[in-house]
Amino acid sequence: MSKNKPFKLDEINKKSPFKVPDNYFDDFAKNMQHQIEDEPHAIVIPFMTRIRPYLYVAASLLIIFSITFVALNTSEKEENVYAKKNSDSIITPSTQVASTSTVSDELVEDYYSLDDEELFNEVFDEEFDQI
User: Fold this and answer.
1) In angstroms, rounded to a whole number, what is the distance separating the alpha carbons of residues 117 and 68?
2) Could you tell me what percent of the chain has a pLDDT over 90?
3) I need a surface site. Which of 16, 66, 70, 99 has the fewest CB within 10 A?
4) What are phi and psi of 56, to 5 degrees?
5) Between the CA of residue 5 and those of 1, 2, 8, what are the distances in Å?
6) In this model, does residue 63 exceed pLDDT 90?
7) What CA–CA distance (Å, rounded) separates 3 from 83?
């Protein structure tokens, strides 16, 4: 066909280029039934495949709880060791009452009369005196 010539449907061959084998539709139902019977009806999922997600969740929770338990026990042990080493400096309610009764009223009034800058300077000077 040339490019200048208009396209006409009447000129196209009406014969289909595809062919169906002989007796295809006669045997179609039998062939389809045979293929269906060959396929397994139930899919068997192995036990480990079914429980694997639950095992992952359980393992994650076990790790989280183990880390938390170890961290809490370690910090409690460190606090106990620190408390035993510094038992002199630990203030209990009985020592606190005894120690506050020995502070004079003048010291308390001086403490409350200091503004923030004076209090900072006093604490800062005491720290350098100790060094």
Assistant:
1) 43
2) 17
3) 16
4) -65, -45
5) 7, 6, 9
6) yes
7) 102
Separation of CA 22 from chain center: 64
What CA dihedral angle connects 31, 35, 38 and 44, to 10 degrees?
-160
Two tokens at 104?
Answer: 């004079």
Computed on alpha carbons and rounded to an integer, the radius of gyration of the chain in Å comes to 46
Amino acid 16 reads S
74 pLDDT more than 90 = no
For residue 25 the two structure tokens come to 């539709």
Paired tokens of 111: 């403490």
Mean pLDDT computed over 67-88:
70
* Distance of alpha carbon 45 from the chain centroid: 29
pLDDT at residue 18 greater than cutoff 70: yes
